[in-house]
Design brief:
Layout lengths: L5 H30 L2 H5 L10 H5 L36 E3 L7 E3 L12
Antiparallel strand pairs: 1-2
The chain binds iron/sulfur cluster.
């Protein structure tokens, strides 16, 4: 029968304490990042390239006036990322888009998934 090893139990307790301390630090950092304005974080995002495969499929352009109107007849003059329901950049020149997580789109851009803000 195995003897009770007080030394190993202490080591396990210490490991558990370290894990919990690290987890609470990570949760605190995540809460802090979540509290930052979305716009500030969008500034750090890499810009979506119009040559990105999904961007091409949706006809994304950084300048809405250059949208391929023949290929995307749903384009309506005046529609831009800035007035799209998926845009997360507020008044910033570049901002996040719910369709392109981790990338920033141009506020003056457009893609065929545009959904006008109500
Ligand atoms: Fe711009 Fe809207 Fe298309 Fe995103 S979904 S790229 S915000 S037009």
């Amino acid at each position: 029968m195995k003897k009770f090893d007080q030394k190993n139990v202490s080591g396990a307790d210490q490991g558990r304490r370290r894990f919990l301390a690290g987890a609470s630090t990570a949760i605190g950092a995540a809460a802090l990042v979540g509290a930052l304005p979305r716009q500030a974080r969008a500034d750090d995002l890499p810009h979506l390239s119009p040559t990105d495969a999904t961007a091409q499929t949706l006809g994304y352009v950084e300048d809405a006036t250059k949208a391929d109107k023949a290929k995307f007849p749903t384009y309506v003059a005046g529609n831009t990322c800035a007035n799209c329901n998926f845009y997360q950049g507020g008044a910033a020149a570049w901002g996040g888009c719910q369709l392109f997580p981790g990338k920033a789109v141009n506020a003056k851009g457009w893609c065929s998934a545009h959904a006008k803000k109500a």
